[in-house]
Each structure stands twice: as C-alpha cells, then as structure tokens.
Amino acid sequence: MSVVRLTLGYIPLVDAAPLIVAREIGFAEQEGLSLDLRPSPSWSTLRDLVALGQIEGAHMLAPVPVAMALGLGGMPTRLDALCVLSANGNVVGVSLALAERMRAAGHPFDFADAESAGRALIAAAGERLRIGVPFPFSMHAELLYYWLGALGLEAPQALDVHTVPPPLMAEALAAGDIDAFCVGAPWGAAAVDDGVAELLLPTTSIWRFAPEKVLAVRHDWAEANPDLAARLIRAMWRAGRWLADRDNHVTASELLARPEYLNLNAELLERSLTGVQTISPRGEIRRTDGFLLFHAGAGGFPWRSQASWIAGRLAARTGLDRAAADRAARQVFRTDLYRAALAGTSADLPGASEKLEGALHVPTEVASQTGTLILPPDGFFDGRVFDPSAD
Fold first, then answer.
1. Is the separation of the CB atoms in 275 and 354 below 8 Å?
2. Interval 337-350: pLDDT, tens
3. Dihedral through CA 346, CA 228, CA 25, CA 278, nearest 10?
4. What stretches in the chain show pLDDT beneath 70?
5. How far is C-alpha 204 from the geometric centre of its chain's CA atoms?
6. N or C: which end of the chain has fewer CB within 10 A?
7. 368 CB-contact burial (10 Å; exposed 0-12 / middle 13-18 / buried 19+)
8. By C-alpha distance, which of 252, 217, 212 is closest to 341?
9. 3-class secondary structure, 136
10. Is 154 buried (19+), middle (13-18) or exposed (0-12) by CB count in 10 A?
11. Is the preceding peptide bond at 39 cis, omega within 30 degrees of 0?
12. 249-257 and 266-274 helices cross at what angle (nearest 10)?
C-alpha cells in the first residue's frame, strides 16, 4: 500500500483527539496515510479551507455540512460527513454574578437537571440573556435554542446569541460582553480555572447523545477518492476505539497537551476525557457519565436521522422548506461510505441508517450485523422523540 499524505485541519479542542491519536499512535500509518494536521483559528476559516480545496478534510462542527447543503453560510460547496468524530463534550457556563443570583434563589448547581437549571438561568438573567457560542451553525447553538426555547426563552426576543472563539470565551465573560456561554472542552473548565465562571450544565443533560464533530471532506473529493475516504474512516474508527479505553486517557491527554496541538495543561484535558469536572472556583466536583464519547454505541456512525434533526432545526429558524432541507441533509451524512469502509473489520454496524432520536432511556440492544450492538441512552431533557420519517 502506497503512503498518501493528506492535510487535515482542526480547531484545538479535546474532541480533535481522533485526528491526533490516528497520527501519533499509528492508526493512520496502518492505512497508508501520512496526516499533516493543521490548527485553524476559527470554524469559518476551517470550513473555507476545505471548501476551497486547500486541505483535504477537517474536524468540523456537525451542523456545518448540513447548513452548507441548505445554502446557509455563504459557501455553495457541498461538504460530506464521512463519520462522527465525537458526541457530547460541551458545557454551559455562567458568570460569577449570574451564578451568585442563581444560588441565592436556591439553585443547587447539581450539573445534571437541564429543566431546573434552565428555569433558574432564565429567572436570574432578567429581561435578556446574552450567551456566547463558537459558531452560528453548531450543536452549541442548536442545543441552546432547543433547551431554552422549550422553557419559554425564545431568540431573538429574549435571547442574544453571540459568536465567540472558544479560547476567548472566558475573556468575553470577564469583560461583561456575555452572561453565559456554551463551549467545547476544555474551554469551559479553563474559564473556571481562570476564576471567571461556574459551570451550570453539560449539554449531555439536554440531549444524552448528540453528534458534536464530524470528519468533513468535499463531496467531489470523496467521490473521486473512495479508497482514501475509506482509509480515513478506518483510521478514525480505530482512534476512537483507542480513546474509549480509560487506560489510555493519561496518554491521550499528554498527546493533546503538546505545544503543536492544544498546548495546554494535560490535567485540564484529562478532566474532559474522564467526565470529572470542577464546576466552580471553590473546587466543587461533578462527574458526568458520557460527558465526551468517541466510540461507544456506534459512536462514529453518521446517522441520517441526526442530520435530519439538525436540518429541521435550521430550517425552522431560517424559514426554509422543511422537506427540502431534510432531503438535502440526509445526503451529506455518508452512511454508505461508512458502511463500505468498515466492511470486513470487527466494527458492528447498525442495520438501519436512521432511528428515532431521543427514544432510548437505557442501554438498548438493536439489530446489527453481528447482533451485539448496544446503543446508549439518547433522550432529550423534555422527553420528546424525533421521528425522521414524520418530518
């Protein structure tokens, strides 16, 4: 097998780990790939680099390929999601002043109950809540709109959502530019360590199993290079499986901490991998099962129903035709390429390419190639179930 050099972009976040592990542990090399990993300063820059063909692919926010398929964001190029790189991993944080008001009103900061946390946040925020997210088309934004909208706080009437780069979230909070944020690991924990924030909620409490990042490539590149796409998928699958082993978390955090990658303290990064979070400057600790997932329960599978959920949310908010948005979104989550790439491996793939989202409240065995696949709970905080065939 000839060695092929591919350039992949990423944002310095913990959930870029599959790319870094694939390169450093040798999973890419096993597939005859040499990965040139390039950090990017923003999601818009990263999106444009892929779309313009300056790099082959990228660690990308799951809603970005869907948004582009819907004509949102100003870039007409179609991007495909070859696989899901991670699920969950985000936190909602609030300013110290807002946290003090919430605590005074009796909120316990249990870091678990999305409904009580949301109602306490709305009550303490007053007339308007200003909240930072890393990018307009992101699960950060979609989960916030879903969560707060279900509790009666609608944008733009009473909710201002601002785009803030993840490393600057603590600074924006300290300067009073925002009251709260939703951001990926490790930047919520970093804001607590800086003494400017308290963590209110992991987004897994809003949706137990939300796709967070995908491996995105141009559609024309995937069609022209099916063998390379398959090699990339297999390398990411093996990296995700390695990351799912708790015995590897210390090594993973040390790899991520290197100056050429995240350039942050390894202990800070390990908290995200273990799900043990320090939620306040006073040192309060909370543990969250499934805080950040890379592999469990067919974690890399690009479910078309998840693309459909994202498309429905985007279409409703932007006034697009829901049926047309759904059709476009399903095409960019490439279950076909994922199945083909992992055929012949030990991966146990689900028999279906879509499912009811939010229907599982306990680990559940589902039909699969070997009959041993167990999907984790994926419920929404308000008990709703999304049926992709009904929209």
1. no
2. 999 999 989 899 99
3. -90
4. 1, 391
5. 10
6. N
7. middle
8. 217
9. coil
10. exposed
11. no
12. 140
